[in-house]
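Hello,

Our lab assistant flagged a job as stuck in the queue for most of the afternoon. It eventually completed. Since we weren't sure the result was trustworthy after the delay, we are filing this so someone can double-check. Below is the sequence as submitted and the structure that was eventually returned. Let us know if re-running is recommended.
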Amino acid sequence: MKRGEIGSPAKNTRSKRKTIMEGADPFERGLEPAKILGASVNSSGQLTFLMKWKGIDSLDKVSAKVAHIKCPQLVIAFYEARVVFEKKDTAPGSTAAGSDDEQEENDEAQTEVKTEIKTEAEDQNSDNGDDELSVGETYN
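-- returned structure --
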């Protein structure tokens, strides 16, 4: 057999190695995470993150449980980038006068945190008309 032919042992070994590496967990392959690009819920209901890796262009889905352990700072940064603070209207009868400390306390009491992570599960719930709450949602 000539070198490089389809049946050559060297070619088969490389293709097997590539298949094994592609199927392995990105952390086991020695890849270093660069950024979390998105989040979704897989078919079994588990949260997964779409992650970009340093040094390569490919993207991988990683279980949230694994990401929380292997790269907690990236997970925190991902959530912080999507947190929105909304200020509620002031209560009727309240005055604008008052000390700065009182005003800060009122502002903090009226601030509500909402997350804007749209997952496939939320899409499905909205299509079905379900009134279930997802993580970070509140009834208004």
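-- support follow-up --
The delay was a queue issue, not a problem with the job. The result is valid. The mean pLDDT is 71. Residues 9-23 form the longest helix (15 residues).
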